[in-house]
Specification:
single chain, 148 residues, mainly beta, OB fold (Dihydrolipoamide Acetyltransferase, E2P), six-stranded mixed β-sheet, five-stranded mixed β-sheet
């Protein structure tokens, strides 16, 4: 990621800040009615129909082993795509788009719990916050393996 400018969609999960490359984000929607999928892994909240496409919804707080917030009006779903399949990432609150230089990204801290560490590709530190940058492919691939 060095020597390049990156735009991160930043969002909140519990009391932690995360970022996702905006190039991976298709859209952000309010939480609609979600159809439960029985016998799915715990982090799969269910599925939705988004303009004729079936989208699997992943609760990122559960996936990252963070405390889950009670349902709020600020919860949103970030629609992404992996291997031509749409996924929705449920987050507690959407923040701003942050512009950073790729060389400002540090590697993930070694002391992160194994559960969280593999889902984070790096961290960005500004004057006020530390933002963990998500590894979307790892999140989606691990969810798909659990579902099989």
């Amino acid at each position: 990621m060095a020597d390049s400018t990156l735009q991160l969609c930043s969002f909140q999960l519990a009391d932690a800040l995360f970022g996702l490359d905006t190039m991976l984000v298709q859209e952000i929607i309010k939480v609609p009615e979600i159809t439960k999928v029985y016998q799915a892994p715990e982090e799969i909240t269910g599925i939705i129909n988004l303009r004729g496409k079936i989208v699997t919804i992943i609760d990122l707080a559960i996936k990252l082993d963070l405390p889950t917030e009670v349902e709020t009006k600020n919860r949103r779903i970030i629609i992404v795509e992996s291997d031509n399949e749409p996924f929705g990432l449920m987050v507690d609150h959407i923040n701003d788009v942050i512009h950073i230089d790729g060389d400002e990204i540090d590697p993930s801290p070694a002391n992160l719990r194994a559960t969280q560490g593999r889902f984070i590709s790096g961290v960005f530190r500004n004057e006020e916050h530390l933002i963990a940058i998500l590894n979307l492919e790892e999140i989606v691939n691990q969810t798909e393996k659990k579902a099989d």
